[in-house]
């Protein structure tokens, strides 16, 4: 049993870290997209204003 426990724990931790990384990357990409959209929108507004 003691030999089995660390393996299971590491597996759990790896799964957790992978899911966390995926979530972070997705959030980061969404955030970038949003910023790009806002910048483009502001640029269009400025162009329209001028």
Explain what this protein looks like in three dimensions:
This protein is an all-alpha fold and about 50 residues long. It has one domain. Helix content is about 90%, strand content about 0%. The protein contains 1 helix and no strands. The longest helix has about 45 residues. It is rod-shaped, with a radius of gyration of 22 Å. The model has no long low-confidence stretch (mean pLDDT about 80). Keywords: Membrane, Mitochondrion, Transmembrane, Transmembrane helix. This is ATP synthase F0 subunit 8.
Output mean pLDDT.
Answer: 81
Q: SSE order, as H and E? A: H
Could you give a short account of the major beta sheet? none
The dominant shape is: rod-shaped
Give the tally of structural domains: 1
The level of helicity is: over 70%
The number of distinct β-strands equals 0
How large a portion of the residues is in β-strands, by DSSP E? under 5%
Structural class of the secondary elements?
A: mainly alpha
Radius of gyration: 22 Å
* Low-confidence sequence ranges: none
Number of helices: 1
Question: What gap, in angstroms, lies between the N and C termini?
Answer: 73 Å
Oligomer classification: single chain
Task: Give the key terms.
0% strand, transmembrane, single chain, 50 residues, mitochondrion, mainly alpha
């Amino acid at each position: 049993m003691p030999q089995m426990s660390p393996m299971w724990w590491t597996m759990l931790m790896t799964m957790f870290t992978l899911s966390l990384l995926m979530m972070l990357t997705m959030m980061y990409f969404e955030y970038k997209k949003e910023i790009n959209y806002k910048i483009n929108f502001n640029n269009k507004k400025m162009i329209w204003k001028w």
